[in-house]
Amino acid sequence: MQLKKTYPKKLEVNVLSTYSSSFTSVKNELLPSHPLELTEKNFQLNQDKTNFATLRNIQGIHAPLKLQMEFRAVKQVQRLPFLHSSNMAMDILRGNDECIGFEDILNDPSQSEVMGEPHMMMEHKLGLL
């Protein structure tokens, strides 16, 4: 009796470079763990909608349209992707420049221990990767 050498079939594995794509996160796929978590995530959006509705009722349609146009203009002005931006102009437009919250102190990206690869981040932003 002669034994045959059998080799396992070659497995196809899709491996992505962590330089060009970040690690996958399970956190984004999870459902909210607390009833207030979803409300907190959408707080700024709900606040903006309320402010726009109030402005429209008090000053007319031009006020929220002007404010939305200013929001769009401020969002377009950014630093390079590997440099942290404080978005001070957006905070001023929203009135958040006078408040201190958890996001101002905890998890501050400007004090991060890890900085991304500048060349890779620029290539990703320009769509070269």
Feature tags:
129 residues; 45% helix; extended
Radius of gyration: 24 Å
Shape: extended
User: Can you count the helices?
Assistant: 6
In helices, the fraction of residues equals 40-55%
InterPro entries: Ump1 (IPR008012)
Pfam family, one: UMP1
GO cellular component, one term: nucleus
Family: Belongs to the POMP/UMP1 family.
Topology diagram in text:
Layout: H1 35-41, H2 43-59, H3 62-76, H4 88-94, H5 102-105, H6 118-125
Helix pairs in contact: 2-3
Description:
45% of the residues lie in helices and 0% in strands. The chain is mainly α. It has a domain at 54-100. The radius of gyration is 24 Å and the shape is extended. The N and C termini lie far apart (56 Å). The relative contact order is 0.08. Belongs to the POMP/UMP1 family.
In short:
By secondary structure, the chain is mainly alpha-helical.
